[in-house]
Amino acid sequence: MGLTHQWLLIFASFSALTSIAMAADLYSLIYKGRANGSLGGGAAALQAIAAVASSLIAQSSTSKFYKASATSMARQALSGLFQGRA
Predict the structure, then answer these.
(1) Keywords on this record (predicted)?
(2) Which residues of 2-30 are buried (b: 16+ CB within 10 A; e: fewer)?
(3) Neighbours of 55 (CB within 10 A)
(4) What are the tens digits of pLDDT across the range 48-78?
(5) Would you list the domain boundaries of the chain?
(6) Is 5 left (phi over 0), alpha (psi -120 to 50) or beta?
């Protein structure tokens, strides 16, 4: 299974996450696995991450490439990219 398919499965598995409490796990996955900078924690950051992940998950079944972004109340910008391959 290719790396892209693994990420698709990971993101698809989080499609049921709707509450901020569950977004904390998503925050840990994304931040620990892919980020080198620092994104301040707290509810505002978790809301931004949940919004980006939700948007990417929703578009992953219909688009081959999609970019999503959100800004937290603390004015922290967060972007995410999805690229699917056949």
Answers:
(1) Membrane, Signal, Transmembrane, Transmembrane helix
(2) eeeeebbeebeebeebeeeeebbebbeeb
(3) 17
(4) 778 888 887 787 778 787 788 777 766 777 7
(5) 3-83
(6) alpha
